[in-house]
Amino acid sequence: MKRRLFLTLIAAATATSASMIAAPVAQAADEVKIGFLVKQPEEPWFQDEWKFAEMAAKEKGFTLVKIGAPSGEKVMSAIDNLAAQKAQGFIICTPDVKLGPGIVAKAKADKLKMMTVDDRLVDGSGKPIESVPHMGISAYNIGKQVGDGIAAEIKKRGWDMKDVGAIDVTYEQLPTAHDRTAGATDALVAAGFPKANIVAAPQAKTDTENAFNAANIALTKNPKYKHWVAYGLNDEAVLGAVRAAEGRGFKADNMIGIGIGGSDSALNEFKKPNPTGFFGTVIISPKRHGEETSELMYAWIKDGKAPPPLTLTTGMLATRDNVSQVREQMGLASK
Length: 335
Ligand code: GLA
Prior knowledge:
Elements: H1 2-30, E1 33-38, H2 44-60, E2 63-68, H3 72-84, E3 89-92, H4 100-109, E4 113-117, E5 134-137, H5 139-157, E6 164-170, H6 175-190, E7 198-202, H7 208-221, E8 227-231, H8 235-247, E9 255-261, H9 264-271, E10 278-283, H10 286-303, E11 310-313, E12 316-319, H11 323-329
Parallel strand pairs: 1-2, 1-3, 3-4, 4-5, 5-11, 6-7, 6-8, 8-9, 9-10
Antiparallel strand pairs: 10-12
Bound molecules: alpha-D-galactopyranose.
């Protein structure tokens, strides 16, 4: 009797210790946790990125941790927090590209894989940190699409270019923003638009309110133009300029604003019964930036396959007349 009990106990103990050893290993292999940090969680573009990242998480079966990180401090504590939760990697759109070396060091110290999206980190001398895989938009070319679209519409309306002012909502500290507006400026000038009529309107932050303030100054200082056009790094920048122009009586007939993005800020504008000065947007892909980056990070963690060092995505110009077709073509229709 005694011996039987003893053997049973041994067997139970062996089974328990075996499962205790086996369990954490199996969990570590199976449970992938990925952070997705964005600089402006309130902006529709980033909401869309998160939505598509969630789709990847559902499909692949990993846990997605969404974190709004609008400051350097928030980024640093979020990375530590992810490490504490046993995440293996994260994707980030940083609030400031100059935080680059600090973020890289923090991720390394916490042994987390990292990939950037939208805004590419720079080193101390302002050069992109090429060791961190990145997915961004082909900023200069997309800016050119904006400029070409504005020039085509000016011509269609038969405006004399000398009577047209251009509000260039700038945010020079962000390289992708610089490249986008530079592309738009170059395309306009190439189409015959007078360079002297382009008014730089630097915004303090990349949101509608700051663009509105910047555009108001540009409008006040240049009362001589009969018509206006506007461009900037995203839809929010152009919406700010459009609202400022409206305030001074430049409505749809006298304003051509083309943004970049194609998320709700633009879609809501197109849904208004009457057209506004927000004429169009170059739709870019939150699906690729949210879903594909997450899948790449997942494959990196799971199979050790690192993402491509640099992926640049494209966009398509849409106006209120063809926005549905363009979204369909870009695989965004079911949103
Ligand atoms: C930057 C902008 C966003 C969006 C993304 C797209 O992060 O601030 O509004 O345009 O780029 O990559």
